[in-house]
Input
Amino acid sequence: MTDQMSRLRPVFAWAALGVLLAAGVAQSATALRESGSIQPPDARTAQQMFADAPDGVDPIVTGPVSAAFKQRQKDANCDTAVWPKIPRACYPD
Output
């Protein structure tokens, strides 16, 4: 009896490894399928970000901001942007 169990032990080990591998592949496939539907954060328009403001939101910041933010606004041409086509980069994080 012990001789038969020692012969079957590697078979059971390989079967368990195969089941674990199949479960991991299934989980990875599900995660990849779900991640394709996520939009990047910059894909939202200003109109979507501020849906409760039908007349628009002024992208001019009145408080202190960093030089990097000012440069980001300059690069995105925020001073000439017109509602609702205002880039997300015009608003602070």
Notes: The CA atoms of residues 28 and 34 lie 10 Å apart. Helices lie at 2-35, 46-49, 67-75. Residues 2-35 form the longest helix (34 residues).
